[in-house]
Amino acid sequence: MLRGLYGAASGMITQQRQQEALSNNIANANTPGYKADQTAIRAFPELLIQQSGGNTIPTTQGGFNIPLSRQLGGMNTGVYVQETIPHFAQGDINESGLPTDVAIEQGNVPDENGAIFFAVQNEDGDVRYTRNGNFTIDAEGFLVTNQGYYVLDEDGNNIQTDGTIETITPEGVIPTTGGDVTIGMQYAADANTLTKEGNDLFEGDAEAVPADAAYVLHQGALEQSNVNTEQAMTDMMNAYRLFESNQRVLRVYDESLGKAVTEVGRLG
């Protein structure tokens, strides 16, 4: 019975974490470049149930016992959320009309899970990656994200715009008084290994975009979130129903344990 309690409780915890991931997706449905989180749910290792017993064979010496064992099958001991993985499908590209906004339209890449990102510098000076091209120009004339992180060029330096941007080519070239500057683009061969850090930033291993990876930058446009709000709402309802089902099972086990303690104990 206690094993049933653990199974129902693990189901409730799993659906709660599923709800949290879906709620976060819906909350960021209008965040440019946001990549929806997907939860990977796995079962705990199964137990193999066996029936143990024996047969007694009559003999002149009074009988001979032969031990027997028969496999009954497997029994699952519960589920858990193994990990949360961002889904890097391309989002829709919508015009914003702002010259500092840039959207990545990713084409064919050499790796199945490959993805292309902007390179930015966080508050600690570390390089991070983002698909959110909602850029602006700070008081010193540097190109920054809407959270204030410096956008880096192809050499890893901050981009000085002289206070204004008129043109960004599809390759990411920005003409300035000091010469042309190219927005630094990075490529993750397996984007699933990247970790979400918050503020639309990803941490992990990336490199310069290989020659056989295709992409185009669109000035005055933003890549939208790839969250499917209708599907997310449907998944939330399913997770809520599963949570309630496990809750009812847990309540039944609790009532049964209560009777075992009170009624069976009274009979003794």
Report on this model:
It is a single chain. The radius of gyration is 29 Å and the shape is elongated. The model has no long low-confidence stretch (mean pLDDT 86). It folds into 2 domains: 2-84 and 247-267, no CATH class; 92-223, no CATH class. The chain starts with a helix and ends with a helix. It has helices at 2-27, 229-267, and strands at 37-43, 47-57, 64-75, 79-86, 93-95, 102-106, 115-121, 127-130, 135-137, 143-145, 150-151, 173-176, 179-182, 185-188, 195-198, 201-203, 207-208, 215-219, 221-223. 24% of the residues lie in helices and 35% in strands. The chain is an alpha+beta fold and 268 residues long. Strands 7, 8, 11, 14 and 17 form a 5-stranded antiparallel β-sheet that branches.
Brief overview:
With 268 residues, the protein is of the alpha+beta class. It contains two helices and 19 strands.
What series of H and E elements makes up the topology? HEEEEEEEEEEEEEEEEEEEH
- The number of distinct structural domains comes to 2
Strand content: 35-45%
Helix residue percentage: 10-25%
Poorly predicted runs? none
Structural class, by secondary structure, is alpha+beta
Q: Total strand count, please?
A: 19
Pfam families: Flg_bb_rod, Flg_bbr_C, LlgE_F_G_D1
Keywords: Bacterial flagellum, Cell projection, Cilium, Flagellum
Domain Flagellar hook protein FlgE/F/G-like D1: 113-174
Domain Flagellar basal-body/hook protein C-terminal: 219-261
